């Protein structure tokens, strides 16, 4: 009935604690190096001996990487596309073919990508077209 001998018992300096080692890239036993108010502040990986700030085990703070991020650029591109399409609504929509010559601001219809607005005409026979899903580089004026 004396001091706890449990491997992952109450944290104390010199005791063991489970933490995520950023070097070993896995959940491993660490030695508590220092404590702040009953919470381990610094721990050392028993496997690779590297020291780090204790942030709890990774399972307790499960991070879902990039959950909010990916949809943003597409939404912004889509809004820009709608804006540009509205600004060029009076224009005739021409079917895209690699042989057709396009100019800046032309509205075209691509078989696969749908309606697009020519944003930029490049000297090398390429055009930058903004489609709903984003910009694409297409060839034009091919003879
Ligand atoms: Zn380690």
Helix/strand layout:
Elements: E1 16-21, E2 26-36, E3 39-45, E4 51-53, H1 71-87, E5 93-95, E6 107-110, E7 114-121, E8 126-131, E9 134-139
Parallel strand pairs: 5-6
Antiparallel strand pairs: 1-2, 2-3, 3-4, 6-7, 7-8, 8-9
Bound molecules: zinc ion.
In a nutshell, what does this entry contain?
The chain is mainly β and 143 residues long. The chain has one helix at residues 71-87; strands spanning 16-21, 26-36, 39-45, 51-53, 93-95, 107-110, 114-121, 126-131, 134-139.
Protein described:
This protein has 143 residues and is mainly beta. It has two domains: 8-63, SH3 type barrels (Roll), CATH 2.30.30; 71-139, no CATH class. The protein contains one helix and nine strands, in the order ββββαβββββ. It has one helix at residues 71-87, and strands at residues 16-21, 26-36, 39-45, 51-53, 93-95, 107-110, 114-121, 126-131, 134-139. The strands form two sheets. It has a five-stranded mixed beta sheet with strand order 5-6-7-8-9. The structure holds zinc ion. Zinc ion binds at residues 21, 23-24, 28, 45, 47-48, 50. Residues 21, 23-24, 28, 45, 47-48, 50 line the site of zinc ion (ZN).
